[in-house]
Amino acid sequence: MASLLDVRDLTVTFPGKTGPAHVLDGVSFAVAPGEAVGIVGESGCGKSMTALAIMGLLPPGASVRGQLWLGSDDLLVLPEPALCDLRGRRIAMIFQEPMTALNPVRTIGDQIAEGLALHLGLGRRGRADRVRELLDRVGLPSPRFSPSFYPHELSGGQRQRVMIAMALACEPDLLIADEPTTALDVTTEARILDLILEVTAASGMALLMITHDLGIVAETAERVLVMYAGRVVEEGTAERLFAGMAHPYTAGLFAASPHAVAIDPGVRRPRLAAIPGTVPEPEERPTGCPFAERCSRRTPMCIEPPPLAALGEGHCVACFHPLAVGEGVS
Ligand SMILES: Nc1ncnc2c1ncn2[C@@H]1O[C@H](COP(=O)(O)OP(=O)(O)OP(=O)(O)O)[C@@H](O)[C@H]1O
């Protein structure tokens, strides 16, 4: 099937103190129409930069190379007005913290209606009807919830529901959810994830779920990209990858995930095991395997960059010493 989103060799660089800092280094992946893809990695791996590059919202100072195809449009060469038209209409994004993403001095109804006026040209009456329909759709029905509410009158979970309503407003082809439940308690997290899955499946929307938690990926994605230090280090269908994580980093994330039981109900662990060390800063990244310094399996050959190579159908890994199926990381 033709891809909806095709990211090719995406590289994002900022000027650093000692030279260019590559925050993304040759990232490539595709999302098919209606597909749910998860991007997972620790803080600082480049997940948000990937999302912001797709949205055309990178911070000032960023320089971008590569290609970002949405259907037949390369987003990296589209002029700003065309990109602006595309945001909300074809791609929408839900951010980590709804309180900062929502405008505190405008009603939720006005904020949801904005995209409807801009992209669909709906009149006042049409917008009001659609806002009520969307609030209802995301579990904020009237009369209990009114479009005239301000964000501060809602709980964190309810605000995230408003963000979902805004994202759904124009029925985009792709929804990017960047850590959408980080600010929520566990019960609310489960409800919001269920809602995102339900609305995307019902409307045939593709989903790019960005998270640091492999458990969330296991619950939401059909395909998984594991990112480390600005690169994709493992990619596979959720079925393949969770049946045999091959990169020592992915296995480390699994060992550190409090939700690992969602991936493997048989898992028994006395305690969570953190990966030693931290993600190297963009200016300090080695030219070879970026994970080598933290990896118990490294050998002298890891001073070379391992290519992302196929392990089997629907599964690739960038590691010279991948784990065999069933093998744990020591
Ligand atoms: N404005 C900026 N200028 C320079 N470097 C930046 C800027 N914003 C982020 N970075 C760097 O880009 C790298 C990737 O950041 P990014 O926010 O994409 O990580 P992430 O994986 O999404 O982490 P998190 O889960 O914490 O959001 C980090 O090393 C970060 O320090």
UniProtKB/TrEMBL annotation:
It is a peripheral membrane protein. It is found in: Cell inner membrane. Pfam families: ABC_tran (PF00005), oligo_HPY (PF08352). PROSITE patterns: ABC_TRANSPORTER_1 (PS00211), ABC_TRANSPORTER_2 (PS50893). Residues 5-254 form the ABC transporter domain. The keyword Protein biosynthesis does not apply. GO terms for molecular function: ATP binding. CDD domains: ABC_NikE_OppD_transporters. Gene3D superfamilies: P-loop containing nucleotide triphosphate hydrolases. Keywords: ATP-binding, Cell membrane, Membrane, Nucleotide-binding, Transport. It comes from the Bacteria. Its main location: membrane. Belongs to the ABC transporter superfamily. This is Peptide/nickel transport system ATP-binding protein. It comes from Rhodobium gokarnense. The lineage of its organism: Bacteria, Pseudomonadati, Pseudomonadota, Alphaproteobacteria, Hyphomicrobiales.
